[in-house]
Amino acid sequence: MTGATGLLGHSLVPQLRDFGHEVVAHGFSNVSNADYQVDLCDLASTGKMLEEIQPDFVINLVGCTDVDLCEQNPQLAFKLNVRSVEVLAHWIGRRRDCHLIQISTDQLYDGDGSHKEDVVDIVNVYALSKYTGELAARPAGATVLRTNFFGPAAGASKSSFSDWVLDKLRKQEAITAFEDVAFSPLLMNTLGKALNRVMELPTAGVFNLGSRKGCTKADFIFAVAKHARLDTSMVTRGTQAQLNLRARRPGNMVMDSSKFEREFGFELPTTEHEINGLELTDEPG
Ligand SMILES: NC(=O)c1ccc[n+]([C@@H]2O[C@H](COP(=O)([O-])OP(=O)(O)OC[C@H]3O[C@@H](n4cnc5c(N)ncnc54)[C@H](OP(=O)(O)O)[C@@H]3O)[C@@H](O)[C@H]2O)c1
Description:
Layout: H1 7-18, E1 26-27, E2 36-37, H2 43-53, E3 57-60, H3 67-72, H4 74-92, E4 99-105, H5 125-137, E5 143-147, E6 149-150, H6 161-170, E7 175-178, E8 182-183, E9 186-187, H7 188-200, E10 205-209, E11 215-216, H8 217-227, E12 235-238, H9 258-264, H10 271-276
Parallel strand pairs: 1-2, 3-4, 4-5, 5-10, 6-9, 7-12
Antiparallel strand pairs: 8-11
Helix pairs in contact: 1-7, 2-4, 4-5
The structure holds NADP nicotinamide-adenine-dinucleotide phosphate.
Residues 3, 5-9, 27-30, 39-41, 61-63, 65, 80, 84, 103, 105, 130, 147-148, 158 line the site of NADP nicotinamide-adenine-dinucleotide phosphate.
């Protein structure tokens, strides 16, 4: 798994091991949990790593996920979201014995949802670089999964959106809950199960992988608070449009993931089901 030392990797590595897969973890600067430390923008060292491992699958989580940083530094966005995929796809090519699973994002969508895979709407450099990364992955016969996720960070140095919400609610700090942003995230545990299914049935193509129905970020915050029985007096409904962010953000990223459900025979849960399944770690005793 490339990018295994990040937020999603911390959750997926143990899950896939529990499913019985032998997972080799790759990282770059954060090497405590990694078997390999390699710059994926470097063709020679990445090729050497893959030659040694001879993987059946490469699940690629490497990326620059900071949307404002991508806007400020498109070269970095290109390196981590496009070049790294090109390098992997170069090695994998059309090998029949290695399948690339490229993790992409729901940030490729905007406007009226729910969105199917065929029309993207690019509003910032992050989205452009992730989409270009998809284009780099597809000639290698990759499964491209457009997703969004939440759940406990499980030791990662970065927090998930639900970690951030729970932390703010517990500390009774003010939150502006956006009513003009909608998404359809999955729990990282569900994403792990879906990935295991993809590994049983590796199929080339682009697939949305999100929860059914979706909700606004505001409704997500109130639902998490209700699930965790936390007070919401510091939460104010507002809009993202009021903020002066460096990168423009999409509004409606809600995905229609029925293609994934049909292709992989995997029923996806509703957003409400996922929120109610959120594990409440670090609760004050
Ligand atoms: N976070 C979200 O909310 C979200 C939502 C939708 C989709 N996604 C997608 O999901 C994937 C995983 O996201 P994440 O939040 O887990 O990302 P993350 O926490 O930022 O992790 C990024 C990973 O990339 C590695 N990396 C950075 N520079 C590298 C380089 N030059 N060479 C090799 N590896 C390098 C990092 O390694 P070190 O840490 O060891 O340096 C880390 O393992 C990304 O593709 C992202 O676009 C994320």
